[in-house]
Structures are given as structure tokens and as C-alpha cells.
Amino acid sequence: KTGLDACMLKVEFHSSMEVPFSFGAEPLKFAIGHSAEINDLMFDLAAKFKDASQQHGSELDLQINFLWNATNGPTPLDPRSRTAEHFADGDTVTVYGDILPAVPMPPHFATNADTVKIPITVLTGFLGSGKTTLLNHILREQTGKKIAIIENEFGEISIDDALLKTGKMNMAESIVTLDNGCLCCN
């Protein structure tokens, strides 16, 4: 839409969101250069919101689920698409997400093992409930994240690890299969 490196956008929030202070009624400056993605706009918008909340005497975080150009209606934009394809100077970005109390970050100098945590997701479910399908989707859609998979296979024949290793699922660096249900015995 534009050849500009930055543009001024108004910000509005979905009607289900309660914003405790005025934000975005006056246009804000956002980077929309050639390589800027919607994901960058989301990050920049969340940072500007946090700064504004601090100026209003509160510590709030804006977690954006999706956003869209108000002119085009409520069609969520792909976070990987280019911002300049969707917005021009003076447009209004509509935000849908959650406004939550800010969680303080641990100090940068902290080296205690208790402050450095790695997120873990445990995926469980009955036979045929879609665990492998979900895992394949996560592996296909990963963007620059390292993912470790530890699979606890109870069947006599390991099926899931073969499904995960085929085709485009080679994105995982390694897949560990627990044949007998015990990590220490493998």
C-alpha cells in the first residue's frame, strides 16, 4: 500500500476489551518498512501500550491474539505477512486480545537455575484423539524455535515416531522414543 518506512496508525480495541485508559485515539508511529511484518507491528503495539499504562500509573501488558485493518473488516492478519501490504498512513488497526497485569521480569544478572526456566508442554490424550496431528502442525508452523520431543510410546510397534519423521516433519533435530515408558531405562 505504501513505500514509506513508517506510518501513523490509529488504534482501536475490540468491543469485548476493557481498556482502563485512553490509548491510540491519537495516531501512533509504527515501522512499516519493506521487511516489517505484522508480528513486528504486534510487538511494537504491545510495547507502546505497556509504556502508556506505566504513564497512567498501572503496569499492564497487552497480549494480542490477532489484529486487522478496520477498513477491511474483522479479517485477522497473518503475523508473517508484510505490514506495508495491509496498512497505509492514517489507517486504523483493530486489536483483539487480553489486557493483563504485567509480570515482572527476573533481573538480567540473575544466574540462579531457578530463574532460568525452559517452557515445557506435555501432550496427552486417548488413542486417536489427535496428538500426532497437533504435534505435526506445531513442527510445520514453528518459526525459529528449538523444539525437543520426548515420546512415550506404549505400543509394541512404534507408530508415532515414524509419522513424525516422514516428509516435512524432519524439522525436529531429534526424536527420542521411550519404548518401555521409562526415560532412565532408554
Any overview of this molecule?
The chain is of the alpha/beta class. Helix content is 19%, strand content 22%. The longest helix has 18 residues, at 38-55.
Number of strands: 6
Largest sheet: 4 strands, mixed
Succession of helices and strands:
EEHEEHEHE
How confident is the prediction overall: mean pLDDT? Answer: 78
Specify the helix fraction band.
10-25%
- Please give the alpha-carbon distance between the first and last residues: 56 Å
Tell me the structural class.
alpha/beta
Q: Kindly report the spatial arrangement of strands forming the biggest sheet.
A: 2-1-4-3
Can you count the helices? Answer: 3
Radius of gyration: 22 Å
* Poorly predicted spans: none
Cα shape: elongated
Strand content: 15-25%
Topology:
Blueprint: E1 6-13, E2 28-31, H1 38-55, E3 60-69, E4 92-101, H2 131-141, E5 149-152, H3 160-165, E6 175-178
Parallel strand pairs: 1-4, 5-6
Antiparallel strand pairs: 1-2, 3-4
List the keywords.
single chain, 186 residues, two-stranded parallel ribbon, 19% helix
Brief overview, please?
The chain is of the alpha/beta class and 186 residues long. The protein has 3 helices and 6 strands; from the N terminus they run E-E-H-E-E-H-E-H-E.
